[in-house]
Amino acid sequence: MIYLQISLNIAPINRPAAAAIYSKFKSAFLEQVPGAKSKELLIRDEDVQVQHGFDTRENANAYLHSALFTNDVVVSLKPLLASDPDVRIYAAH
């Protein structure tokens, strides 16, 4: 499994709004994005992380350039971000 991990610096007061955005786009991600396997929201004291599971690294990279990500998710989250997100792709063995 390939994971796309996006860590978001979002103030605690804005985290419910971020969770709503996650919920809004989760089904579209799982149903429309090639190779999508899973999507989980992790709310931690220091940040909010979204873990996306994919079948290949190529599909994870392609999602970062998709209309769903760039036009919908990024645009919706941008007002809530305190800094640029940390984006990482890694493989689990």
Write a compact overview of the structure shown.
This protein has 93 residues and is an alpha+beta fold. The chain has 3 helices and 4 strands; from the N terminus they run βαββααβ. It has a 4-stranded antiparallel beta sheet with strand order 2-3-1-4.
Topology at a glance:
Layout: E1 2-8, H1 15-32, E2 36-43, E3 48-54, H2 57-63, H3 67-77, E4 86-91
Antiparallel strand pairs: 1-3, 1-4, 2-3
Description:
The structure is a single chain. The protein contains 3 helices and 4 strands. The protein has a single domain (2-91), classed as Alpha-Beta Plaits, CATH 3.30.70.100. The mean pLDDT is 96. Helices cover 39% and strands 30% of the residues. The chain has helices at residues 15-32, 57-63, 67-77; strands spanning 2-8, 36-43, 48-54, 86-91. With 93 residues, it is α+β, with helices and mostly antiparallel strands.
